[in-house]
Amino acid sequence: MSDGDKTLRELVDLGSRYLDGKGIPESRNILELLAARLFSCGKLELYRVWETVPDTRIVDALRRGMTRVAKGEPVQYVLGQWDFRNLSLKVDRRCLIPRPETEQLVELVLQSPQAKAPGKPIVVDAGTGSGCIILSLAKEMRDGVFVGVDISADALAIARENAQRAGLQERVIFAESDGCGEFDPASVDILVSNPPYIPSREVDRLDPWIRDQEPRLALDGGEDGLDYYRAFINDAVMVLKPGGGLFFEIGDEQGNAVRTLLEDFGFSNVRILPDYAGKDRFALAEQVV
Ligand SMILES: C[S@@+](CC[C@H](N)C(=O)[O-])C[C@H]1O[C@@H](n2cnc3c(N)ncnc32)[C@H](O)[C@@H]1O
Q: Has residue 86 been placed in a domain?
């Protein structure tokens, strides 16, 4: 890009073509996201500055961001933040980038009888990553005790930063844990998780900006992708109260297998629900009363 007197519109056009040439999908969207960040506005407000000639500092920053994306870094890590429901979360290579489907998982929890019951439910997010699920629940639920656990100290560090950013540091506890079995027996009202669920051999075939950039620990669900459902369901049997709710995000081909696991472990009211694209994406169940 050679640039000194180019308008933002021209820079974004040029940059999009450059990323297209590198085989990066959604190049225009990426350039607009980078530009919006640099102008501290939303993408939809960019039209106000399209015809301005950005100063060198902005042109350089745009070029740096674009170069990182061209080398394979996800734009979310380049931006260093990403929106999830009502939160703006810090994200970097220590955590999975929150996905839109997971916003729907939060919605399913919010609409559940366990979340609407009177009192102060104990809510646990297993494999909390950036903290997106548990921080959203803490923000959007009337009351509760909110705990996010993860085996990754790196992910927990970013989750704690996100709690500070959202002003939720007094409401959410984060703890290092392998699984979610370290709660008192029959003490938890809601257990929610978006565990690693991609079969190991498929992780190796993912797009490089996922496979080589996001933590493998957040992606790899073992040989059949179901390792963490087995482990977390086993823990859930112990820690969920009678009538407590279990809420999983699942891979789109895992509905039958996760249903069978939940039924084998004695859960009731097992439901497999679709995402907005119509694909199986969530498994819900209740601990027998
Ligand atoms: C798919 S990511 C989900 C992150 C976040 N909840 C989200 O929805 O964006 C799975 C998370 O599980 C964590 N994890 C992997 N193995 C775990 C284990 N044995 N116990 C607890 N957490 C684990 C990973 O570190 C990662 O943060």
A: no
